[in-house]
Write a structure and sequence with these properties.
Elements: E1 2-6, H1 10-22, E2 26-30, H2 33-42, E3 47-51, E4 53-54, E5 57-58, H3 59-68, E6 75-79, H4 84-92, E7 97-100, H5 105-120, E8 126-129, E9 132-135, E10 140-143, E11 146-147, H6 152-163, E12 168-170, H7 171-178, H8 189-201, E13 207-212, E14 216-221
Parallel strand pairs: 1-2, 1-3, 3-6, 6-7
Antiparallel strand pairs: 4-5, 8-9, 9-10, 10-11, 12-14, 13-14
Length: 223
């Protein structure tokens, strides 16, 4: 999953990014509406976490712009206001959810993942594919009853393939989901390395990660 965090308070933004990246979310940061617009122009995001009060305006302005041009990216608004009017205004502007500051980072993580799952249309927490069991919330992958140890990025890559099983996912889309703008030293070759690692770790499972030459990769369930 790739997320855009629009937040101008450095300490809060840093804490959120550290937490999210530890749980496997590639996170980009914008500190102003202008920076957020620039990010959205060049990058597609799975979820946007958008603060309402920013140095150059209100987050709801950006939200209205997105919705007016048909951008349905799930947006979770952050607000320091407890008033019902503020929260209703955010939802009326097109927000999918909101969270009042201060908040528990575990709740933010859970709400982000709920929006992501809702957008993908996969409501089931635990997915069984033959002898492979995948649980996104618990961050557990099992072959029969034996756990498979995956790194954070391997888990994110597998999740993207599983959520899109049976479909070809482009290398660019997978790269976007696994790596953030901060990973400037990472090349597309790194994605191929992670695919190879996944194939090795999942070699005895009932799935196959197929290479679609010139297009990307597709996960198929072995019959």
């Amino acid at each position: 999953m790739r997320l855009l965090l629009v937040e101008d308070t450095f300490d809060m933004a840093e804490a959120i990014m550290i937490r999210l990246e530890r749980t496997g979310i590639a996170c980009d940061l914008a500190k102003t509406l202008e920076e957020a617009r620039a990010c959205i122009e060049v990058q597609r995001y799975d979820v946007i976490v958008l603060d309402i009060n920013l140095p150059d305006g209100l987050g709801t302005e950006l939200l209205k712009e997105m919705r007016s041009r048909g951008d349905r990216t799930p947006v979770l608004m952050l607000t320091a206001e407890f008033s019902v009017d503020e929260r209703v205004s955010s939802l009326n502007s097109g927000a999918d959810d909101y969270l009042v500051k201060p908040f528990d980072h575990r709740e933010l993580d859970a709400r982000i993942r709920a929006l992501f799952r809702r957008e993908l249309g996969d409501k089931v927490e635990e997915i069984s594919l033959g002898n492979l069991t995948f649980n996104a919330s618990a961050r557990v992958v099992r072959r029969d009853d034996s756990p498979i140890n995956l790194t954070r990025r391997e888990f994110v890559l597998l999740e993207l393939l599983i959520r899109n099983r049976g479909k070809t996912v482009s290398k660019e889309r997978l790269f976007e989901g696994v790596f953030s703008f901060q990973d400037t030293e990472v090349s597309m070759n790194a994605l191929e390395l992670y695919i190879a690692r996944l194939r090795k770790k999942l070699s005895d499972c009932s799935i196959t990660i197929e290479t679609q030459r010139g297009l990307g990769y597709k996960l198929e369930v072995d019959v």
